[in-house]
Amino acid sequence: MRLFEAILDANHRAVAGDKNAGVRVADFADSLPVVALTCIDPRMNPLMPSVLGLREEDFIWLRNAGNIITHSMSSTMRSLALACVVKGGKEIAVIGHTDCRVGQTTVLQLTERFNALGVNRSHLPDNLVEFFGVFASESQNVMKAVDFVRHSPIIGPKVPVHGLLVNIQSGRLEWLVNGYQELDAAAARIAEAVNVENPTMQSAFASPEHDVGARKPFETKVGEQEPVPGWSVKDARIVEVPVPEEPPKIRLVEEQRAHAPASKRPPVISPSKNRSRRFPPPPPPA
Ligand SMILES: [Zn+2]
C-alpha cells in the first residue's frame, strides 16, 4: 500500500468510527513530506492535516481561493515546484472540498460584491471566469488543477500528483485522481513505446515459449496507441457519504503529539488565553 492509499484507508476507517485508525508514517518516510494545495476556506483549518493522519512536519500547505490552478506556469505552480525542490516535497495533492463558496459564486455576484467594496467593474478584467478561475464543479476543478500540475514542465515527472475531495463536515476524503495509477499508466505507455520502437530489445526479453515471429508487435506506431485501459480522470465519480456528527479524529496525530519529547511539542495556545493576553479583561459588572 502506498502513502495516499494508506491515508485514504485510515481516513475512511476513522470516519466510520475506528478509534485505532491511523497512518504509520515511519513506513512512508520516502514519500514525505507531502505538498497539498487546498482552498482558503477557514473550515479547512481544523481538518488539515489531521484528516490525512499526518504530522504537521510532514505537511506542506499551500492555499488559494478555490484551490484553483489557472496555468502550468502560474504562481501557484511555482510554489508547488519550489515546495518540492526547496522543501523536499515528495508527492502533491490538490484537495478540494464540498460546499466551496468560490464555486457557488456567480459572475454577477462577484461584480456586485466587488462594487460593494468600491471596486468598479471597469477595473476588473473582461473575462472574470478565466481571471479568477471560478468553477461550477468542485470535482472537475480539482481534476483540472491536477491535469495542469501533472503536465507542468517544472514538476518532476516521477512526482505522484493526486486529486482529492474532502467533505467539509465529515472530513471524509474521496479519490478523484489516483496519482500512482496515472504514473503506472504512463510507465506502461513508455514501456510499450520502447518495445514498439526497438524490436531487438523486445525479442531479447520475450520468453522462449512464445513464438515472437508469429506476433505482429510492430504494427502500432508511437502516438497511435490506444490509452492504457484502467482508471482515468474521466472515470472519476464522487461518492456521497453520510455526514457523521463529529469530525474524524485520526489517532496518529494525537498519539504522536502525546509521545513527542517536550522540547519538540508545539505550544498549545487556546483562543481564549490568547485573547486575554492581547486585550485587557472586561471590567467587572457594576
Ligand atoms: Zn472553497
Overview of this protein structure:
This protein has 286 residues and is an alpha/beta fold. It folds into two domains: 3-178 and 232-271, Carbonic anhydrase (Beta-carbonic Anhydrase, Chain A); 179-230, no CATH class. It is 35% helix and 10% strand. It has ten helices and five strands; from the N terminus they run αββαβααααββαααα. The chain has a five-stranded mixed beta sheet, with helices on both faces. 29% of the residues are buried. Zinc ion is lined by residues 39, 41, 66, 97, 100-102.
What brief labels describe this structure?
single chain; 286 residues; alpha/beta; Beta-carbonic Anhydrase, Chain A; 2 domains; five-stranded mixed sheet; 10 helices; 10% strand; globular; binds zinc ion
Task: Provide a concise account of the structure shown.
It is built from 10 helices and 5 strands, in the order H-E-E-H-E-H-H-H-H-E-E-H-H-H-H. The chain is of the alpha/beta class and 286 residues long.
Count of domains: 2
What integer is the average pLDDT? 81
End-to-end Cα distance: 64 Å
CATH topology of the largest domain: Beta-carbonic Anhydrase, Chain A
Q: Judging by the overall fold, what is the CATH architecture of the largest domain?
A: 3-Layer(aba) Sandwich
Portion of residues within helices: 25-40%
Please, how many helices? 10
Low-confidence spans: pLDDT under 50, at least 5 residues? 207-244, 271-278
Shape: globular
CATH class label of the largest domain? Alpha Beta
Total number of beta strands: 5
Strand order of the largest sheet: 2-1-3-4-5
The SS-based structural class is alpha/beta
Beta-strand residue percentage: 5-15%
Order of helices and strands: HEEHEHHHHEEHHHH
Fourth-tier CATH superfamily name of the largest domain: Carbonic anhydrase
Q: Characterize the largest beta sheet: strand count, sense, and whether it forms a barrel.
A: 5 strands, mixed
Which ligands occur here?
zinc ion
How would you describe the oligomerization state of the chains in this entry? single chain
